[in-house]
Amino acid sequence: MPAIATQLASIRQRMAQACQAAGRNAGSVRLLAVSKTRPAGDIRLAHDAGQIEFGENYVQEAEQKIAALADLPLSWHLIGPLQSNKTRFVAGHFHWVHSIDRFKIAERLSIQRPAHLPPLNICLQVNSDDEASKSGLTSAELPDLIKAILPLPNLCLRGLMCIPAPGNHQAFHTLAATFRQLQATIPGLDNKTPGKPHWDTLSMGMSEDLEAAIAAGSTLVRVGTAIFGVRPVMA
Ligand SMILES: *Cc1c(COP(=O)(O)O)cnc(C)c1O
User: Fold this and answer.
1) Helix (H, G, I), strand (E, B) or coil at 11
2) CA–CA gap between residue 210 and residue 204 (Å, rounded)
């Protein structure tokens, strides 16, 4: 298993190549290093190799790492499900939440966001496989939820996130089309008002499919295995 710094360099290379192939600016896609199940020491190594943004799935696991790494200027993204009883910690310690799928959680985060912090960045998670078993919103549910969230003062609604089934690259194109359609039809998502909102984020693509996601318009890829290695199987 090559060192984390080597793996990071090779992911950045893959991203640059995918941008070039898609005729996109190399700076138009951000890398989120998904550090779930990895120890704080691995995150520190990634930081030393220039990585700032990290994604965690489980709030309880993230709590310890955020405390252990408080000396570093890291940006923490929650990409896993969020229950009501964990919103206070998330509002106080995370910079982004990608997995918003209902108003109640968004409202709690806005209320609980400490006044000294900037608005919490959020994305809405869309179920892009149309499987009832999967989490996330249907595209039909998005407009009403967006209109309800936009007035919340301590959130900044940035865009959409999806976790399609492996190989479902069409889902990336569908999400990108939905993103543009919402922007064209919902007042407040046109990015013309200074301040918030900044409707600018399509969080899609992982280790196996980041090229396809970038070709479809991803602005943020979430990569775990290709940086940190294969995760231990969770009990
Ligand atoms: C684990 C995870 C990732 C990273 O997946 P890899 O295949 O390890 O790159 C990305 N997004 C979400 C939501 C995840 O849970």
Assistant:
1) helix
2) 8
Among the listed residues 169, 150, 151, the one whose alpha carbon sits nearest the alpha carbon of residue 218: 169
Whether 227 contacts 8, CB under 8 Å: yes
The ligand 1 atom at the shortest distance from the C-alpha of residue 226 is: 9
Q: Which strand (E) or helix (H) includes residue 59?
A: helix 59-68
- Omega within 30 of 0 (cis) for the link into 232: no
Tokens 């005729």 locate to 23
Give the residue, out of 51, 206, 209, 233, with the most ligand 1 atoms within 8 A of its beta carbon, to mutate for a pocket test: 206
The atom number, within ligand 1, closest to the CA of 222 reads: 10
Beta strands in the chain (DSSP E): 30-34, 53-56, 75-78, 96-100, 120-126, 155-162, 201-203, 220-223
Q: Kindly give the confidence (pLDDT) of every residue in the chain, 235 residues in length, as a single tens digit, with 9 standing for 90 and above.
A: 569 999 999 999 999 999 999 999 999 999 999 999 999 999 999 999 999 999 999 999 999 999 999 999 999 999 999 999 999 999 999 999 999 999 999 999 999 999 999 999 999 999 988 776 678 999 999 999 999 999 999 999 999 999 999 999 999 999 999 999 999 999 889 877 666 669 999 999 999 999 999 999 999 999 999 999 998 776 4
Torsion of CA 56, 76, 145, 202, to 10 degrees: -90
